[in-house]
Amino acid sequence: MVGTDLRQQLRNYIQSSHEQGILDETFDRVKNLESDGNPQFLSEIFSMFCHDAENGIAELARFLDEPVIDYENVSAFAHQLKGSSSRCFEAFDKVKREYCILRDNLNFIAQMEKTILTNEARRRSQ
Questions:
Q1: Distance (Å, rounded) from C-alpha 38 to C-alpha 52?
Q2: 70-86 pLDDT, tens digit each
Q3: What is the pTM of this model?
Q4: Residues contacting residue 2 through CB under 8 Å, at least 6 positions apart
Q5: Which of 98, 105, 115, 118 has a CA that sits 20 to 30 A from residue 79's CA?
Q6: Per-residue b/e over 73-112, b at no fewer than 16 CB within 10 Å?
């Protein structure tokens, strides 16, 4: 029963994240790749995404802190991180804020998935 409740909570949370514009169809495509053979797939993908994004944000911050900004590098990292280039500080700050919201949401989803799997494994072993 607990696993069912958590699964519903997870579905509700994902739906809410979609409605807020935090998640999009890309998330759905990745989620559909998850299988019983690899139940940690989403957590692994989220971890890789967050690691890469945090590195990209750190590099952008480093380039933007330089006395003479190398907009070519800034543009390349912004494009890599967001899918389009950005040359203004406000846009970069917005990307950082949005990334933090997305990261927190993905971490919450991963934690719920992990709890569900742990609870199911306990139930099977009883």
A1: 22
A2: 888 888 877 777 653 33
A3: 0.63
A4: 119
A5: 105
A6: ebbbbbeebbeeebeeeeebeebeeebeebeebbeebbeb
